[in-house]
Design brief:
Blueprint lengths: L5 E6 L13 H10 L4 E5 L8 H6 L1 H12 L4 E6 L1 H5 L8 H4 L11 H21 L4 E4 L19 H22 L3 E5 L9 H10 L6 E5 L1 H7 L3 H8 L3 E6 L1 E4 L19 E4 L8 H10 L5 E4 L8 H15 L18 H7 L3
Helix pairs in contact: 7-8, 10-11
Length: about 350
């Protein structure tokens, strides 16, 4: 079924830990396989499970990583460069917070931190190629997000210049991904300059429509913005190259609405939830993606303010599997059809 969505798969980042089985690649992949997952999305910043530099330097290490997964019947879906790609563009307001994503040698030095981040993302292209992958996932970073709400009034040209600079930083990276025959799918996410369809269009226009600039579709971020996430698929389906299956709920009150981020996660109007516990219409999403021929992976990204991650992971695999549509090779009304004959067709029209 090459035209069906693949899965279920799981993003390993939220499950890594210091205790077995979550502290080694073989351990966590065996655990995931035992829950019914067929694919894993691997974070490239945690050397307990993946050494990005080794993977970029040679295919031998990549073959070992793939073999480790294959012994449990699991495929690598994509490499994630989320944390490193975030540091390609950082507004100074976030310098201290995002230094946590960087190695000690570049902390406190934004220019060196950015250089390190670019090198990391470039290695992601080569590592993906060495693994035989066609897709990687990450973030755009942010230069303009602190100016999201125009008060005080923004100066004319601020947003245009921000996206022009974002494109200047990303175009040579995307060119390297093109040379490696790998798409880079940006997760559209609040906090990034690209956080909805309109901002993706600004980014893509600044990149002159770069063919390797793709989307990681995650409906949870759209529900919390009250964006029509099904219509988003209608508009941008040809750019969707990866899919994070994550649930969320939005419960506005007389006290809180979309901007409820100062509250803790359990007390916000918008909250991430485990699959099936939120409000996202996954039947509609899987139907839309199938309609438009999306045939890559459906990857659980677990984030929930209430449920334990291991319970969420255990429930996630059958949830995804139950939503994957086996596409039909026949029409439901074929039984009532007949052989096509031009003479009969013309007669039916009175010609």
């Amino acid at each position: 079924m090459s035209n069906a969505i693949k899965g279920p798969a799981i993003f390993l980042a939220q499950f890594l830990g210091d205790e077995a089985p979550f502290n080694t690649l073989s351990g966590i992949v065996e655990w995931a396989a035992g829950l019914g997952y067929k694919g894993v999305q691997i974070p490239t910043w945690d050397k307990r499970v993946f050494d990005l530099e080794k993977a970029a330097q040679g295919k031998e290490y990549c073959d070992e990583i793939a073999a480790t997964c294959a012994q449990f019947g699991v495929t690598i879906t994509e490499l994630s460069v989320h944390l490193q790609s975030q540091l390609v563009a950082v507004h100074p307001a976030y310098d201290d917070a995002f230094d946590a994503f960087a190695p000690e040698a570049v902390k406190g030095n934004p220019a060196e931190r950015q250089k390190w981040a670019v090198d990391q993302v470039l290695m992601g292209a080569q590592a993906s190629r060495n693994l035989g992958l066609k897709t990687a996932v990450g973030f755009t970073g942010s230069l303009a997000f602190p100016y999201l709400y125009p008060w005080p009034q923004r100066q004319d040209g601020l947003i245009d210049e921000a996206f022009a600079e974002l494109a200047r930083r990303w175009k040579p990276i995307l060119d390297a991904y093109d040379a490696a025959d790998v798409d880079l799918c940006f997760e559209i996410h609040p906090g990034e300059d690209v956080f909805d369809g309109a901002t993706f269009e600004l980014f893509l226009e600044a990149l002159d429509g770069h063919p390797r600039c793709k989307i990681t579709y995650d409906p949870s971020h759209f529900l919390l913005q009250q964006l029509d996430y099904l219509a988003f698929i209608d508009i941008y389906h040809d750019r969707i190259g990866a899919f994070h299956v994550k649930d969320a709920e939005f419960n506005p009150s007389g006290r809180q609405g979309v901007y409820s981020g100062y509250a803790g996660w359990t007390n916000r109007a918008g909250r991430f939830r485990s699959l099936g516990d939120g409000q996202v219409d996954f039947k509609g999403i899987f139907s839309k993606l199938t309609q438009y021929g999306y045939n890559s992976w459906a990857v659980l990204e677990w984030e929930c303010c209430l449920k334990h991650p291991e319970q969420g992971a255990a429930e996630g695999a059958p949830f995804i599997a139950s939503h994957i549509i086996r596409t039909t090779d026949k029409a439901f009304d074929d039984f009532a059809g007949g052989q096509s004959d031009r003479a009969v067709l013309r007669k039916m029209m009175g010609i």
